[in-house]
C-alpha cells in the first residue's frame, strides 16, 4: 500500500505540473495563423506606443505598451507602471542604424553585456511580454548578414537566459528586411513591423516574403509626412484630427485584424512628440508649453482606439474638425499671404454632444531642424501671441517673410482637443 500511495502521489504531482499553464508568453502555430498565450491564456496585443497616460490606455481597452530602450532602472520603472495599470510591456533594446557599428567589437561587447544584464535581471518579471531588439536598424543600409547575425546572437543569448519572454526585432515596412531575418535571425519569436500609409499592404508583403512566422504592427497611425501631399513650396500637409480618427479605425479593423499571422499592434504615439509638427503623430496635445492653454488633452485618435478596442461607442467624443481655410484657401491650395496684411483663418468644427467649443490659434515657423527615423526635433519657434476665441475664426498678421504654419486647437471642455493646421507662405 505504501508503494501504491507513492505511485499515486507521483502521478498526481506529474499531472499537476503538466496541466499547469505555462508561465510567460508563448506563440503557437495554428492552422490559419498563430496564437499568443500569456500565462496560459489566449491573448491579443492591444498596445500603445509609449508609457504616457497608461491609466487612460487601460480604461480605453489597451493591455500593453511599448518602449524603444532603457537601462535596468528605467525598465524597472516601466514594469511597475505597467503593473499598476494592468498592462504588459514590449521593452525595447536600442541598436544603432549605422552599419559600421556592427563591425566594432567594443560596441558589440557592450551590447552583449547590456542584453545579458537585462535578461538576467528581468527573466522572471511577469509584467514584461517581449524584448524588442532594435528599431528599424535596416534603414541606413544595415540589412545584411553581419547586422542580422548579431541580432540573432543577442536573441539566442537572451532566450537561453530568459525562458519567460518573447524576443523580437522591429523593422520598417520593408520586405527585404523580412527576407534577411528569415535567413539570418531564426531565433526571433516574432517580428514587429512599423507601417503608416501602406499598412493595408503589410499582409501581402509578409505573405510574399521568406519570413514564415508571426508578426505585430509595432508602429502605425496617421499618414506620415513623407507620404502625404504638399504645398507648392514642399511643406507637407497634415491630416485633420477627424481624418486621422477615421483612418485609425479603418486601418485597425482592416489591416491589423485582417491577418491571422498578426498578433496585435502598438498604436503610435500614445503621447506627444514633435515630428515636423507638434501634432502629426501625437494622440495627446501638448501640455506645459508657455503661453499655450493646453493640458495634454486627448485627441480624436484616443476616441478611435477606445472604439475599436472595446467594440463599444464611447459616451463622450471629441469635436469633429473637418478643415481649415486661410483667406478662403485650403492647405492643398497653397495659401500665400502678404507681409503685414491681416488675414482670416477659419475652421469647420462641430460637436456630437453639443458641447461648447473654444478655439485656440497659434502660428509657428515651419520646422527646419529635422530628425531622422523619429529622432529628436525641437519645437519650432512661435510667431506672435496665442489667440483664443469663442468662434471658429481668427484674424492674424505676420510682419515677416517666410514659411509658417497656423494651428487651430478646438477644445470641448470634456478632456478632448481636436487639431488642424495649414502651411502658409508670407511674401512681400
Helices and strands, with pairings:
Elements lengths: L1 H18 L5 E6 L2 E6 L2 E3 L1 E5 L4 H7 L3 E3 L5 H13 L3 E6 L11 H18 L5 E8 L9 H17 L4 E7 L2 H10 L5 E5 L7 H7 L6 E5 L21 H16 L5 E6 L32 H11 L9 E7 L9 E3 L4 E8 L7 E8 L16 E8 L3 E4 L5 E10 L5 E11 L1
Parallel strand pairs: 4-5, 4-11, 5-6, 6-7, 7-8, 8-9, 9-10, 10-11, 13-19
Antiparallel strand pairs: 1-2, 2-3, 12-14, 14-17, 15-16, 15-18, 18-19
Helix pairs in contact: 4-5, 5-6, 8-9
Explain what the structure shows:
It contains nine helices and 19 strands. With 428 residues, the chain is an alpha/beta fold. It folds into two domains: 291 residues, Glycosidases (TIM Barrel), CATH 3.20.20.80; 108 residues, Immunoglobulins (Immunoglobulin-like), CATH 2.60.40. The strands form four sheets. The protein has an eight-stranded parallel β-barrel with strand order 4-5-6-7-8-9-10-11. It has a five-stranded mixed sheet with strand order 13-19-18-15-16, with no helix packed on it. A three-stranded antiparallel sheet has the order 1-2-3, with no helix packed on it. Strand 10, helix 8 and strand 11 form a beta-alpha-beta unit. Helix 4 runs parallel beside helix 5 and helix 5 packs across helix 6. The longest helix has 18 residues. The radius of gyration is 24 Å and the shape is globular. The relative contact order is 0.10. The N terminus is likely disordered.
Amino acid at each position: 500500500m505504501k508503494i501504491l500511495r507513492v505511485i499515486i502521489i507521483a502521478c498526481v504531482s506529474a499531472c499537476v505540473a503538466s496541466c499547469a499553464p505555462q508561465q510567460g508568453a508563448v506563440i503557437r502555430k495554428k492552422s490559419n495563423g498563430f496564437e499568443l498565450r500569456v500565462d496560459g491564456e489566449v491573448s491579443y496585443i492591444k498596445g500603445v506606443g509609449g508609457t504616457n497616460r497608461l491609466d487612460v490606455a487601460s480604461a480605453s481597452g489597451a493591455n500593453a505598451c511599448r518602449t524603444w530602450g532603457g537601462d535596468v532602472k528605467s525598465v524597472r520603472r516601466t514594469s511597475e507602471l505597467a503593473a499598476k495599470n494592468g498592462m504588459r510591456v514590449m521593452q525595447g533594446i536600442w541598436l544603432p542604424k549605422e552599419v559600421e557599428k556592427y563591425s566594432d567589437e567594443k560596441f558589440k561587447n557592450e551590447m552583449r553585456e547590456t542584453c545579458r544584464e537585462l535578461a538576467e535581471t528581468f527573466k522572471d518579471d511577469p509584467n514584461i511580454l517581449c524584448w524588442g531588439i532594435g528599431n528599424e536598424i535596416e534603414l541606413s543600409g544595415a540589412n545584411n548578414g553581419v547586422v542580422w547575425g548579431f541580432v540573432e546572437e543577442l536573441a539566442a543569448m537572451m532566450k537561453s537566459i530568459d525562458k519567460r519572454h518573447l524576443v523580437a526585432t522591429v523593422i520598417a515596412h520593408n520586405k527585404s528586411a523580412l527576407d534577411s531575418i528569415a535567413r539570418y535571425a531564426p531565433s526571433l519569436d516574432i517580428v514587429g513591423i512599423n507601417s503608416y500609409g501602406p499598412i493595408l499592404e503589410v499582409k501581402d508583403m509578409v505573405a510574399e516574403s521568406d519570413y514564415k512566422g508571426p508578426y505585430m504592427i509595432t508602429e502605425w497611425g496617421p499618414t506620415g509626412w513623407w507620404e502625404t501631399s504638399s504645398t507648392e513650396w514642399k511643406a507637407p500637409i497634415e491630416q485633420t484630427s477627424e481624418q486621422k480618427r477615421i483612418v485609425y479605425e479603418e486601418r485597425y479593423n482592416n489591416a491589423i485584424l485582417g491577418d491571422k499571422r498578426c498578433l496585435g499592434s502598438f498604436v503610435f504615439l500614445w503621447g506627444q512628440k514633435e515630428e515636423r509638427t507638434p501634432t502629426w503623430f501625437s494622440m495627446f496635445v501638448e501640455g506645459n508649453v508657455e503661453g499655450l492653454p493646453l493640458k495634454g488633452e486627448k485627441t480624436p485618435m484616443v476616441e478611435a482606439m477606445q472604439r475599436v478596442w472595446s467594440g463599444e461607442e464611447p459616451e463622450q467624443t471629441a469635436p469633429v474638425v473637418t478643415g481649415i481655410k486661410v483667406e478662403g484657401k485650403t492647405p492643398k491650395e497653397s495659401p500665400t499671404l502678404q507681409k503685414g496684411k491681416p488675414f482670416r483663418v477659419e475652421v469647420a468644427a462641430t460637436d456630437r454632444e453639443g458641447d461648447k467649443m473654444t478655439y485656440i490659434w497659434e502660428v509657428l515657423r515651419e520646422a527646419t531642424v529635422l530628425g531622422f527615423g523619429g529622432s529628436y526635433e525641437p519645437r519650432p519657434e512661435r510667431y506672435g501671441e496665442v489667440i483664443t476665441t469663442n468662434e471658429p475664426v481668427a484674424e492674424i498678421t505676420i510682419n515677416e517673410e517666410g514659411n509658417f504654419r497656423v494651428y487651430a486647437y478646438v477644445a470641448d471642455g470634456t478632456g478632448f482637443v481636436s487639431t488642424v493646421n495649414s502651411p502658409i507662405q508670407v511674401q512681400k
